[in-house]
Amino acid sequence: MTTTKLAIGSIFIGIAVLGLKTLAYWLTGSVALLSDALESTVNVATAIAALIAIRIAAKPADAEHPYGHHKAEYFSAVLEGVMIIIAALLIFREAFRGFLAPLPIDAPAEGLAVNMLATAINGFWAWVLITRGRSGKSPALVADGKHLLADVFTSCGVAVGFLLAVATGWWLLDPAMAALVALHILWSGSKIVKDSLSSLMDETVPEHTLQDIRRVIAAEAGGAMEAHDLRTRHAGIATFIDFHLVVPGETTVFESHEICDRIEKSLKDLLEDAKVTIHVEPEHKLKPSGAILPAP
User: Where do runs of H (alpha helix) occur along 29-138?
Assistant: First the structure.
């Protein structure tokens, strides 16, 4: 299933889950279940934002965006985090009202059953989004999946509080659980914003990927003297790699180009969507400290 189809699927899943959770709240009048439904309204909105971002990110580079549109997905992820935080604040408001005037819960069995059905759907779809998003290097899908996964955990917490309130008759447990849900959602939203902002700031690739890149350069740089000033960053599915390659003074332009082509091909075998820039330099530009040397 393509990234775009997954994003469209998230919209329909979000609408279905929102309908089920709203029904659960309508059956019971539970503030905790209302908090769960409020979070699902964010799921629908962010799924739409993710779809728009994915379509923009898929556009090829143009005159105004020569490096492509890959970062559009990170803006979607930031928006999702902000909307989650807003949802948490709305839930805090409902929890406060519940503390002021706690009410008994109606039709608990029916309401809980409907809510758990919605939670099961969310759990399955979160797994699909995170798995496919990581394999397709789509931060928007991964962020959407992590949000749904957080929703699953909070829904389970809501169910526990809901059952305790019904079993004990302590109706204050219902708004108390809603407040705990809001705290968890607040943490989840802030983490998504933090991770997305790091990517927007051109954070380097993970250390294990960086070591793989250095290994490939060293293995394929035969004929060169060294590579140095390696820099990397990732944006959506694209990984940008640039470095300087030092060749002996007698090396021809053709020979230098052959070395660069060999390195670039191997890097793209390692990272399918790698965007490689190599700056060839003469031997007096050697920088032994921190340099990548060709494999012997």
Answer: 31-57, 72-100, 108-135
CB neighbours of 247 closer than 8 A, spacing ≥ 6?
Answer: 223, 224, 225, 255, 256, 259, 280, 281, 282, 283
* pLDDT over 70 at 198, yes or no: no
Which residues 6+ apart lie within 8 Å of 144 measured at CB?
Answer: 7, 10, 43, 46, 47, 50, 80, 129, 133
Backbone angles phi, psi at 227, to 5 degrees: -125, 145
Domain assignments of the chain as residue spans, ordered by start = 3-200, 207-285
Instruction: Write out the two tokens for 134.
Output: 């990581």
Given a contact cutoff of 8 angstroms between Cβ atoms, the answer to whether 271 and 240 are in contact is no
CB neighbours of 85 closer than 8 A, spacing ≥ 6? 185, 186, 189, 190, 193
Q: Give the β-pairing of 226-235 and 238-246.
A: antiparallel
pLDDT at 20 over 80: yes
Q: For the structural domain made of 3-200, what CATH number should be given?
A: 1.20.1510.10
Predicted model pTM: 0.57
C-alpha 119/C-alpha 109 separation (Å) is 15
The pair of structure tokens assigned to 199 is 């990517």
Residue showing tokens 């608990």: 108
- For 90-104, what is each residue's pLDDT tens digit? 778 777 877 777 777
Q: Mean pLDDT lowest for which of 20-29, 50-59, 119-128?
A: 50-59
Write the CATH number of the domain with boundaries 207-285: 3.30.70.1350
Residue with tokens 């700056």: 279
Distance (Å, whole) CA 130 – CA 147: 10
